[in-house]
Amino acid sequence: MASKIESAVKACDSFVRDFHRSEDRGCIATFSNHYRVVQNFTSSEPLMLRSLSDIDNSSCDGMTRLYDSIVDMINYFRNNGDRSRPWLLFVVTDGEDNSSTRSANSTGRTVMQTYNGESSNFIFVIGVGSEVNQSKMKEMSDAGGFNYVHIDSMEELKRLLVLIMVQVTQQIVGVSVETDAFSAMMLQRQRGLANRFIDYAFLIDVSGSMTEKANIYKCFANHTMSETDEGKQWQCNICDAHRRGSAGYKCSTCNLFACQSHIDGNKLEPKGTCGNDHPLVYKHMSSWNCDECSRSFRNCRSLGCRRCNYDTCNSCFEDRGVSSAAAAMFLLALLGKSSTTQRF
Question: What CA–CA distances, in Å, run from 249 to 26, 135, 182, 234, 265?
């Protein structure tokens, strides 16, 4: 299982691969006890990827100098950013500030005065896990008029960065994008047609806690699940949806796939249960009979309990009034310049 810093780097790597255009400029900075620019603004995608790959567990040590590092990053933008284009800053942290000279409120006010006053500048502070002081984050975002987003684990970061980019593209290009229908190529094309290039930066927490292992997810049989493979198609055994790439988790032992939205904490939640309270999962079967209506089915997926040899068709399952346990984990409000606290 990957550490938190490994998961964070992987999410940033995917963002660069999917959204970096030839005339965009990216920058990477880290912070623990000290703020450090790892990669100055560059239009080179290979340089961005190489610099990200140099950030690993050995990079992580020390305390969390969050507030001062945000201001340092803002000053870097002001001194090195191209003022003719939108600015986009992602800040990723897993803990509470314990090493800054500034307060949350004064940091927010500095962001408002020196960065966020421009409508084309965007900043997202992303707090990950239970160690983040959310009241302080809200105090900072309220003072700064920017977005603070909380997610439960680093595994959710990749999807969140994508959703943010969808919304930012809508604002800077002025074209509505359906969140579920977009593609990275489509977003790049829209920015190209509008001749809009961006300066963007990642400010990544590399304090000692970032070496901790990310959340470990378990299947119904208590096996450890891993992320689904990049680019490969799969079908969720919980909700039967067709997916592609790393939008979920798999148990190789059980040959079970699940969307991220079916995981509550580190526990997999079923769509429903049988009469003995066992989880119901979808499975392709050559022939089977519904135990509720007795209809026969061939070469399709049954929703059933393998331990009890119980199967039900979708119609009968819905008639039972069993509500889905799936929850939409990634709902991103339309971005505004007013402060917002989101939970994912």
Answer: 30, 31, 22, 10, 14
Nearest to 156 by CA among 218, 248, 221, 78: 248
- Helix boundaries (H) for 125-197: 134-144, 157-173, 184-193
| Rounded Cα gap, residues 324 and 316, in angstroms | 14
- 169 with 177: CB under 8 angstroms? yes
Residue type, 93: T
Q: Return the number of other C-beta atoms located less than 10 Å from residue 117's C-beta.
A: 11
Q: How far is CA 195 from CA 39, 50, 162, 295, in A?
A: 25, 27, 21, 58
267 C-beta neighbours (distance < 10 Å), count: 11
Residue 305 bridge partners (DSSP): 310
Strands 267-268 and 263-264: antiparallel
pLDDT (tens digit, 9 = 90+) per residue, 127-182? 998 889 999 999 999 999 998 999 887 878 988 898 888 888 888 777 665 544 44
- β-bridge partners, 87: 121, 199
Q: What is the DSSP letter of 199?
A: E
- Threshold 0.70, pTM exceeds: no
- Per-residue model confidence as pLDDT tens digits over 37-71: 999 999 999 999 999 999 998 889 999 999 999 99
